[in-house]
C-alpha cells in the first residue's frame, strides 16, 4: 500500500455552514472517476491511495484491462508505482460501465469540432452513463475543460434522464444531489505532484455542492481550494489558457517583427524583460497540446463579437507553423538536393506528446511540398506519427546523425537532449532555431 504523507489542505474560503439541501450528508466512501486518461487516471490513483474505494470507468477495454493489472496506459511519473499498490490493495478497479458510487468525477475529452466549437459529446455520454446509477446524496463533479454554463446544462440533461431526482440549479434547498465544476491545471509529467500541490477552484452549482466537492479533493490536495460558482470556475479555467495563448501570440508576433527588421528577437526579449513589470514569453514554432490551442475557442464562441483579441491570438499562433515552413523552404531553395534536419516533434520540451504539435505540422508541410529529405530527430518517440510515417523522404534518426547529414537544421523543440549536439557541426549549417535553444545557451 502506498504511503502518501500529505498535510492538511489550507482553505481560502470560509465555511458557510453545512449543506442546506435535503440530500443528507453521508460520508463519501466510494468515488467513480469517468474517463481514465491523463487527468482521470492519476486522480483515481491518488484518491485510492488515500483509502477511498475508487471505481474507474473508461470506454477503452484495453486501457481498463491494463489498469486492472496495476499498469498505466499513459506515461506519467510514479503513476505505475501507485497504481500497482492501489489495484493490489483492492482500492481501485477499472470497468467499462459505471456502478453506483457516492461521488462521480468526469474527466473525459472536450476537443473542438472542425468549426472550432466545443465538442461536448463525451461529457454528455458520460453523464448519460451515470444517470441510471445516480441516487440521492450523490455528488457529480465535471473536471473536463468546458464552455461556461456546462454544469448548468449537465444538470438539465440529468434532470431529463432522472426526473425523480431534484438538482441544485433549480432549488438548492431541496436538491437531492450535489453538482460542481472543478477544473484541472496539471502539467503532464508532473501530474501527481501538481494534483497534490496546485491551488484548486471548486465551483458549485450551489454552495452546498462546492462544500461537498471540496470534501473529495481534501483527501489528497494540499493547495489552496477556492470555492466559487460553477460559471466562475468554468470561466477561470478558460481564462488561464486564453491568457497563455494571447501572451505567446504576442511573443510570436514580436519575433516575426524582429526577424523582419533584422533584430535578434531573443536579445530584444531578454532586454525588455529587465523592466520590472514586463515579462514577455518565449516565441516558438506555434502552440500545441490539447489545451491552449483549443480552450480559447470556448471563450471566443461565447461572444465572438466581443473577443477579437482572443481570436487574433489564435490566428497568430495557428499561423506560425506555416511561417516556419515557408522560411525553411526559402532557405532550402539554395541547395540542389537539400537535406533538412528537424529537431523535435513534440508539442513541448521533454515529453512524447505530439497532440496538436506545431512541429508535426511543420514537418508534414515540408514533406507534402517535397522540399527535401527530412531527417527527423525526436528522442521521445520510437516511430514516426501517421502524418509522416511511410514517406520515402522522411526518416526518424538520432539528433547527431540529423545534424551531421543536414544542410539546414530546424530546431522546433528545446528538448534537453538537444543541448549536447555538436556545436561545431551546427556552426557550419544553416540553422533555423525557432525556440532559441542556441540563443539561450549564449545568454
Ligand atoms: N491532460 C491535461 O494536461 C489536462 C489538463 C487540464 C485539463 N484537461 C482537460 O481534462 C479533460 C480530460 O483530458 P485528458 O487529457 O485526461 O484526456 P484523455 O484523452 O487522456 O482521457 C480521457 C479518457 O476518457 C475516456 N472516455 C471518453 N468518453 C468516455 C465516456 N463516455 N465514458 C468513459 N470514458 C470515456 C477516453 O477513452 C480516455 O481514456 C479534457 O477536457 C482536457 O481538456 C487536461
From TrEMBL:
InterPro entries: 6-PGluconate_DH-like_C_sf, NAD(P)-bd_dom_sf, UDP-Glc/GDP-Man, UDP-Glc/GDP-Man_DH_C, UDP-Glc/GDP-Man_DH_C_sf, UDP-Glc/GDP-Man_DH_dimer, UDP-Glc/GDP-Man_DH_N, UDP_ManNAc/GlcNAc_DH. Pfam families: UDPG_MGDP_dh, UDPG_MGDP_dh_C, UDPG_MGDP_dh_N. Residues 341-440 form the UDP-glucose/GDP-mannose dehydrogenase C-terminal domain. Keywords: NAD, Oxidoreductase. GO terms for molecular function: NAD binding; oxidoreductase activity, acting on the CH-CH group of donors, NAD or NADP as acceptor; oxidoreductase activity, acting on the CH-OH group of donors, NAD or NADP as acceptor. Gene3D superfamilies: Cytochrome c1, transmembrane anchor, C-terminal, NAD(P)-binding Rossmann-like Domain. GO terms for biological process: polysaccharide biosynthetic process. Belongs to the UDP-glucose/GDP-mannose dehydrogenase family. This is UDP-N-acetyl-D-mannosamine dehydrogenase.
Amino acid at each position: 500500500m502506498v504511503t502518501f504523507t500529505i498535510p492538511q489542505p489550507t482553505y481560502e474560503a470560509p465555511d458557510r455552514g453545512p449543506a442546506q439541501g435535503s440530500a443528507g450528508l453521508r460520508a463519501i466512501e466510494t468515488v467513480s472517476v469517468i474517463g481514465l486518461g491523463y487527468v482521470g487516471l492519476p486522480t483515481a490513483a491518488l484518491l485510492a491511495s488515500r483509502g477511498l474505494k475508487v471505481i474507474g470507468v473508461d470506454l477503452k477495454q484495453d486501457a481498463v484491462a491494463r489498469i486492472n493489472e496495476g499498469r498505466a496506459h499513459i506515461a506519467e511519473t510514479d503513476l505505475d508505482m501507485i497504481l500497482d499498490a492501489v489495484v493490489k490493495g483492492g482500492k481501485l478497479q477499472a470497468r467499462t460501465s459505471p456502478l453506483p458510487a457516492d461521488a462521480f468525477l468526469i474527466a473525459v475529452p472536450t476537443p473542438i469540432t472542425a468549426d472550432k466549437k466545443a465538442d461536448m459529446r463525451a461529457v454528455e455520454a458520460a453523464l448519460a452513463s451515470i444517470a441510471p446509477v445516480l441516487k440521492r446524496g450523490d455528488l457529480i463533479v465535471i473536471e473536463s475543460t468546458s464552455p461556461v454554463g456546462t454544469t448548468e446544462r449537465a444538470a438539465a440533461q440529468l434532470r431529463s434522464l432522472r426526473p425523480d431526482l431534484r438538482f441544485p440549479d433549480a432549488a438548492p434547498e431541496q436538491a437531492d444531489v450535489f453538482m460542481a465544476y472543478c477544473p484541472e491545471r496539471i502539467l503532464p509529467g508532473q501530474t501527481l505532484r501538481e494534483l497534490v500541490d496546485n491551488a484548486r477552484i471548486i465551483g458549485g452549482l450551489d454552495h452546498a455542492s462546492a462544500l461537498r466537492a471540496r470534501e473529495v479533493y481534501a483527501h489528497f490536495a494540499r493547495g489552496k481550494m477556492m470555492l466559487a460558482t460553477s460559471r466562475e470556475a468554468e470561466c477561470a479555467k478558460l481564462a488561464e489558457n486564453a491568457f497563455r495563448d494571447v501572451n505567446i501570440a504576442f511573443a510570436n508576433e514580436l519575433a516575426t517583427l524582429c526577424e523582419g527588421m533584422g533584430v535578434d528577437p531573443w536579445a530584444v526579449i531578454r532586454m525588455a524583460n529587465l523592466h520590472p513589470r514586463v515579462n514577455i514569453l518565449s516565441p516558438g514554432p506555434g502552440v500545441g497540446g490539447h489545451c491552449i490551442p483549443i480552450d480559447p475557442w470556448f471563450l471566443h464562441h461565447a461572444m465572438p463579437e466581443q473577443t477579437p483579441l482572443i481570436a487574433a491570438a489564435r490566428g497568430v499562433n495557428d499561423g506560425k507553423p506555416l511561417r516556419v515552413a515557408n522560411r525553411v523552404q526559402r532557405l532550402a531553395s539554395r541547395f540542389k538536393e537539400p537535406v533538412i534536419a528537424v529537431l523535435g516533434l513534440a508539442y513541448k520540451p521533454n515529453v512524447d506528446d505530439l497532440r496538436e504539435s506545431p512541429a508535426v505540422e511543420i514537418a508534414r508541410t515540408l514533406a507534402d511540398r517535397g522540399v527535401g529529405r527530412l531527417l527527423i530527430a525526436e528522442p521521445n518517440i520510437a516511430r514516426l506519427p501517421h502524418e509522416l510515417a511511410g514517406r520515402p523522404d522522411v526518416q526518424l534518426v538520432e539528433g547527431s546523425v540529423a545534424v551531421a547529414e543536414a544542410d539546414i537544421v530546424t530546431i522546433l523543440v528545446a528538448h534537453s537532449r538537444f543541448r549536447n549536439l555538436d556545436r561545431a557541426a551546427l556552426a557550419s549549417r544553416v540553422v533555423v532555431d525557432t525556440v532559441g535553444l542556441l540563443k539561450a545557451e549564449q545568454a
